[in-house]
């Protein structure tokens, strides 16, 4: 059977300030109404049934990814939480071992969660052919036909043609890979373009899970052994998370390219012209999104005067841009980025500096997604804090109490069911309820519409840690 | 006696988005902790007692100007409200007629409210000498020694020296003015620099009120006659505002330069080297404010990477600027401006476009100053609106009621005295009170500390016009 393995563990600092540690690139809606992750699923779901789509991610992103899939109507996609971050060889290996257990002959398509592909039909054709090549025991990679002498990617040099099945209807050619190369300097990139047999390394792969694991045993034997132990430890009836983490953390953090592909003698490449982009920076959007008559990519509340070839992302606030050329401007509730397009690949540096200073703007947005909905801090003062909280239909917050702060809640949309010191109250739109200090309380949305409440916290101490939870965010008692 | 007349009627669109129709340039704190208006008063108050300082402004700005003076401890400055906007000849004439009534020999210094002067001591020396020249029946203007071939200002060509008192200790020379000129083109501006006898027209004047009015009678006789009638109409015991407005509106809107100075034969100039600037654009701040080691002028929450010679004004939100050169970035709660420094003089165009579109961002800030304090809209939804309201000690809002909306108030700082349908409640910090639809209500701060309340409006209709006021904002019954 065909399986898809989506790698969704990236932090995506390159799209700061829209991306944050807790809101990585693959969850952003930068390319339209959907997240890049959802677009990745959409692209393959006609070929791979939902039950055979696996998403490998981190513990901290798993909740938000589940929510995103559920919002998009995907309820059967499997989510694998990596015990720690150890680069792509381990992440892909983890999925391979899981797939092998279900489906010893299974073929896996490995897909980064945050790439863009314009020509979806051609992409599916390539995957169909790739599947055949994988069945013949090749590790297949998609090599993207270069459109310019890019210095930001690794390249693949193709070798001899592999003729497995004669000329196919789809006119896809497979080649043995002669060589993987590092990111070239500009002169070398120009040479690669002229040579015509160099392709961009897309990070999209196809192979049989068991064949991949054989190659892993050859070239990364510790990974191979350890991953089976990890899956064992994570298995029923008694998952041993500590043990799994301990083993996983012992792995070298190595990419699948360095760890396996460059060593294997059985690597094939399909040459792909599909309008691929790894969407590596804000500037990359100009090549993907619709440009207006001035060559600008604009989202939100933006006024331009004499502004050209710029990327301008607004939220609520108005951006007035005058006389800009080739600039990137991205505005969010709490942080704003301005840089020339050519600098936008260096946004990481800013994020690094913010992390060093311990600043929130690197980690979360003012609007914080939660399993039960979301909240946003609207205002803070010396002895108060103001939020809205949205609770999804059927969801509830944990039962909790605060030692130091009291809260006022006003329902402004929907209807709240409030538990307060054991008694249950229904609070209708426009109504208020007071939550005294030290009382146990819980909000619940038993209705079918969104509940929005305004929360005003008052007290001398309003720290995040002034909370006693009697259950977790998923409603499980603790 | 010496009087100062401060012209404070300007709207100052050039400093958008910090300046708004209801928050003009002279009230901004762009140059430090004080408004430019307060800095203008500070500059002359050692020479002119408060009671002899007159501020000419518009009706709509008068309240805010009073508040600003009171915040700065100036309680005796007189405020003249122009019945309409009719340029500087009428505004200065209005002050001259008022001064003449109090002080027939009075000398007036005319000062724009929004200029910057670095060398205050030298400036006072110039005013002292100017006073002597004015007493000898000259209309005196300060001519600024040009520091570069500026094309944005009118110039004054000096004529023969006026020797009233022989060489003075202050080494100030007075000259007869030979000619006023229009703004020059770059070649002409270069010539003026080389010639050495051209000076910038600063708009700072000194003269006897009665002498100025004589010249007005000569060159703007309708203004002259009308202004005496206006002051008559505005006088006790029964001010006739309608009549005053009708006459004032009939005046030609002409500047004092065109209307009087260019025609008079008795115009003198003092050459002034005082570090003067009319602070005409965001870019001008680089010449006035402290530049950091990268040549940037920075205010607020700003992170720069490889950014030089730029003006960066933040408020709460972080501005991350990377790779910028000679740019202007100004962020406010609801609008953000980004443009190259050389375009910053064209901000007016953006404001014009916003006004055409009927957008709030041209008119007010989210934080709206009021005679009783201020409020700020924090969030809006389909059926709710969220504000904080600050009420100054001793102040109160008007008694009012709303047909369509109910309100919840939570006190988060200070203590509120709330009148609700005739009953009076004290609401302490952390407490809540509900204001039902159609109830009459008022908030009052009887304490000595600031009162801050959170107001949550709920209802189907939340328009600004859903209010019945039983008195005005100054507490006067209506």
Descriptors:
homodimer, 478 residues, alpha+beta, six-stranded antiparallel β-sheet, five-stranded mixed beta barrel, 10 helices, 28 strands, globular
Structure explained in plain terms:
The structure is a homodimer of 478-residue chains. The first copy, chain A, is of the alpha+beta class. Helices cover 24% and strands 31% of the residues of chain A. The first copy, chain A, has ten helices and 28 strands. In chain A, strands 18-19-20-27-22-25 form a six-stranded antiparallel sheet, with no helix packed on it. Chain A has a five-stranded mixed beta barrel with strand order 6-9-7-8-10. In chain A, α3 crosses α6, α3 packs across α7 and α7 runs antiparallel to α8. The longest helix of chain A is centred in the N-terminal third of the chain and has 16 residues. Chain A is globular, with a radius of gyration of 25 Å. Chain A starts with a strand and ends in a 9-residue tail after the last strand. The mean pLDDT of chain A is 93. At the A-B interface, β15, β16, β17, α10 and β20 of A face β15, β16, β17, α10 and β20 of B.
Topology of this structure?
Two copies of one chain form a homodimer.
Chain A: E1 2-7, H1 36-44, E2 53-58, H2 59-71, E3 78-82, H3 87-102, E4 107-112, E5 116-117, H4 120-135, E6 139-144, E7 155-162, E8 174-181, H5 186-195, E9 198-208, H6 209-219, H7 221-234, H8 241-249, H9 256-261, E10 267-272, E11 276-277, E12 297-299, E13 302-305, E14 311-313, E15 318-322, E16 327-331, E17 335-340, H10 347-356, E18 367-370, E19 373-380, E20 384-391, E21 400-401, E22 406-413, E23 416-420, E24 423-427, E25 432-435, E26 441-444, E27 451-458, E28 468-469
Parallel strand pairs in A: 1-2, 1-4, 2-3, 6-10, 12-14, 13-15, 14-16
Antiparallel strand pairs in A: 4-9, 5-11, 6-9, 7-8, 7-9, 8-10, 16-17, 18-19, 19-20, 20-27, 21-28, 22-25, 22-27, 23-24, 23-26
Helix pairs in contact in A: 3-6, 3-7, 6-7, 7-8
